[in-house]
Amino acid sequence: MIHSFENKDLNTAYSFYDEKATFSDINSPDSDKEISLTEQKANDQKFLEKFEVTSIDQVGYPDYLHYQLGDTRSVLSWWKYRLIRKSDKKSIVLPVFYIDNFDEKGKITSEIIYYSEKILEAK
Q1: pLDDT at position 29, please?
Q2: How far is CA 81 from CA 15, 33, 39, 89, 97, in A?
Q3: How far apart are CA 20 and CA 63, in angstroms?
Q4: Residue range 5-39, pLDDT digits in tens
Q5: Long-range contacts of range 96-105, CB-CB < 8 Å, 24 or more positions apart?
Q6: CA dist., res. 89 & res. 83, Å (int)
Q7: pTM (2 decimals)?
Q8: CB neighbours (10 Å) of residue 102?
Q9: Smallest Cα–Cα separation from 109: which of 25, 32, 23?
Q10: What percent of the chain has pLDDT over 70?
């Protein structure tokens, strides 16, 4: 999914999500609010209008957690987004942490993303 996003193959990237997937962003004004896949697609478009993705590098190895209680399947992964801000051509390296929850079919049902928005705004 991440590498599809990196290569601007958004249809493939979104195919990994359940159609009812929810998304949370630690930088959202209401960080407890979840948004839909449709809303996330719009957010991704806004992001891509402001930044060119030059690469997304995996940091370490993802961790898979399967909890018996609730039959929860989660993947924790760490990435470095290498970006160029289009407004001033500034190169940015953005560390990102994902928590993705999966259903029994392997589709992502929810995603929480952690990063510092201040890095994206730095001059």
Answers
A1: 80
A2: 21, 24, 21, 15, 11
A3: 24
A4: 999 999 999 999 999 999 999 888 876 789 999 99
A5: 98/2, 99/74, 99/75, 100/74, 100/75, 101/72, 101/73, 101/74, 102/73, 102/74, 102/75, 103/18, 103/73, 104/71, 104/73
A6: 9
A7: 0.91
A8: 19
A9: 23
A10: 99
